[in-house]
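Batch 3, record 17
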Amino acid sequence: MENWLIVDDNLQEAATFAEKLSGPSRSVVPRSVSEARESLAGGEPPSGILMDVDLSNDPNAKTTGPGLTSDCRVWMQEQKLPAFPIVRFSYLQNTKNSIGHDPTSDDLFDLMITKDRIKDNEDAISSQLGGLSELYAFAESKKSVHDLLSINEPDWHTWGHPSLAGRLAQADRAHLRAGLIVRLLTFPGLLISEELLAFRLGLDRTSTAWPEVKEALAPAAYRGVSSGNFVRWWARGVSDWWANIAPEKPPLAGATITERTDVLRTQFDNVIPLVMPPESEGDKPWRFCILTKERNGELIPVDPSKAVRVQPRGDLPAWLDPLYAATGPALEDQGDPRLDAADLERRKAAQSWSKK
Amino acid sequence: MTEELRFSADAALIDRLGRELVSKQETALIELVKNCYDADATRVKVTLESDRLTIRDNGCGMTRDELISGFLKLASDSKVTEPLSRLYRRQRAGRKGIGRFSTQRLGSELTLRTWTNKDQNGLELRINWWQFTRGRLLQDIPVELDEIAPAPRGTEILISSLEDEWDESQVRRCWRGVMNLQQPFPVAPVQSRPSLDPGFDVEFYKIGDLFSDPELVADFQTEVLDHMHAVIDMRVDDNGTAEWRLTKNKFGADRPWTRFHDKDRNSEDPPRYIHLRNVYMTAHYVILAPELIPSTVYSRLRETLREEGGVRLYRNGFRVVPYGEENDDWLSLDAIYARRGTVLAPIANRNFFGVVEVNDPEGANFEEHTSREGLIEKPAVVELRNAASVVLMTAVNKIAEDRGKKTSAGHSTPTPPNPQPLLEKLRETVRRAAEVTAAAKDAAKGDGEHEKNATAEQAVALLTEGGQQFQAAIGEFEAAAKALADDQAMLRFLSTLGLTAAEFSHETTMTFAALRIDFSGIIDFAASSRPNDDDWLSKLERAKSMFGRLDALTSYLSDLASARAIRELAPVSLSRSVKDFYQGMAPLALRASVNLTFNTPPLDPLLTKPMHMAELASVLLNFYTNSVKAMKATQNERLVHIEAFRDDNQVAFRFSDTGKGIPVNLRKRIFDPFFTTTTAASAHATSIEEVTGTGLGLWIVRKIAENAKGEVEVITPPEGFMTCIEFRLPADED
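Prediction for the assembled complex:
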């Protein structure tokens, strides 16, 4: 039975979230900062903590969520506490106010969940929490990268990345190892989600062919730790699969939607091509738009050659994909300092309204 | 043997009683006027001359018996045995037995003439109070009674050898004293009150030493009503149908009788009141501003209304206290004024002189407390409070709207004066003055008398011209400062409200995240507990729907209120604003059966020049709420469409709906401050309710457009729509 805590300055509200995220195999209990400290000091480590950011309503808190998390990570490093996942759990507005563009606390947390979006995403969030617990349990034993990610050495050589292996080797504590795997699973890069897989294949997921396509891609599916909670595919495995079925065609990333679906039609029936939304230019979708995802959770495909690069808040490891914004949302949000100015100018210059 | 003795009274008792009972001459005069009132007079004329005072009324007069057993009998009990007057059933106002002492207090000779019928002889009673001296018995001093020729019915009291002089302030105090006697003017139409009191007018005349014609120094009409700016009427008939109107409006057009109900503010066919019947109100309204009232009467009017202002309540013709008394705020007018400040047009008790008249002989709806301290709070009383306050606020909003319109002819909106040209002239004058001063200094050094004179003349001419310009400039600057102060006050009020709303939205959104989870669980559990109870399930569905609406609205407001939207001044994407608005409003629209659609160019952000993101959202929200109101008033299919586009160097959107449309003659006026077709919120409404429907929404829209150098106008709607408003802003050039 997993035993999670929500550390919050409003225990009444926290009780609601706790109840929502509790289940047959997981108990979530609301705790104030002082109660949580007491519990941690008393040698009762939880399976994980959902940590509020702004704790200022609690006069006895005397810290912030990132502050307490930082303490926990130090205690884990000192092995005064066993490793367990810590999830940032805050209202969007409070996160904007307290964290803003400052990336320094990002590495402390395994996941970032906004309270505002719990209701409509409770299953996915619940699954991710389960995945984190499994991952931390697995990370306790110092297994090899192949064992952790359940990938054989030749495939890792082709689909993986040496710097990830290097970082995993350096990680001498479970929470450090777990943190690396969590990023691998939650950000597109070596691994991609189902939505991104469909974008890259130029396929509309309402196609009846979609289940068959996924089945055909089974060899490239991720089978490592927490794969039950994080459904992913090895990105380079997908490209390899494409090269196998279309050896004479351009590589997947360089093919247009029409070219991609033409190839898929040779393998599957009822293939419906992806339609690029009008605000996203180009016809070679490869990434998704980070701006629309942040605005309302909407994933729209992006052709990187006709999009705007987005500077991440912190440096991205080499095994993660760069971030992009579709032209329309980027032009609407020109004041966003993360947008690459040169890309923005280029996309703007390409529009008929700007040529006057 | 038993001896029977009798009391006797020294004649000096009269003088002693007079001085002790009636110490002030004004009190004495008021008491005499009260006697006229008690005699069912409708008109009283008080004339003050240098050595005598005359009080003439058109009351019932006195018969010989009444004169002897009433006036001449000390401490007669006629006011106790007959508490109501004979003709109009007035509650007798005069204090018991004071009248005769009052005459004695005022002067030493009294002539009382009285007629009960114009065709019969009258009576004249003459009393020389100076004869009532110490050492003589009261009954030994004769008074004289004669028959006199017929005259119109009434009584005339002539007092000569006056004790004191009368100045204007004393006359005025008397007048105020008598104002409280009766309903100051009739309110209910005559046909609905045939047997009721037609009113009681008192006029004071003072004849100065140098004038032979009477000079009217104070009467109710000249003191108050002549200077009021509008008359607001309300009537509720015996079916509960309520109407209001505005007449004698000095700022704009009158408004005809219009039906209303305070609980259904937007309806063109409002429901009838359930309990309220046969109620009439007339309230005279004034804006106590020095520039709107003649300077000679401003202070006096303000002073009078401070004490007498408000809306009084008369039940079956008689005043019910404490309604309308000083410090009483039964319609919450002062409370509203305190809340709204000077921004939304003055609406304190001191801005009104009004009367509410209720006719309820049986006391079924309007029953007085036995202590005579107001009415028992029955439902009709509550309805009356709401109806009356709503009418006053609605009318005042209309007046405010008219005031705004009228300050600038040929333009639908007031434009602050521009003192710049005058400033330029002043600078020039100062420059020339400096030149002349320098020339004067030079001339002073020289010997030429002619030269000195010429310079002096030039200096005088310049100073005269400069003085005139300064005078004009002061006027312009004062006008500009006032306009700015008004705007500033309005904006301060709105920004305070906005910040409160923002803070509130922020807090509620936090709570909502948890609440929506709990609420959803409770609804699911409740539904499963009684799965076959349709009534129960429909209630749950209703609660769920209302909660969803609240949730959607607070989420949108919270996004708007986020720090970024409020604080940053930056180019704003019109496309994004429309999309965000759609996203926030779609759930609300769905619940109001509104088909909300939009169209934005996918790759053109339609960037404006730097402005606040929240401003555009506010514009859209204003249009939307107006549209929904307008569509609810029709049976049309509810469609709202927003079309955003670029037009040369402007970005714009058109907001169309299928409401009732806007008449051509109102197309410009809808953006004026306080223009509204909505009845005002009741006195007990929240701040938010007060602001909605006050006609400030579209004014704010116009201000936003003007501030951004843009435009807003009503244009011909596209096919299938009834109203279309186009909002244009300069495009960002960078």
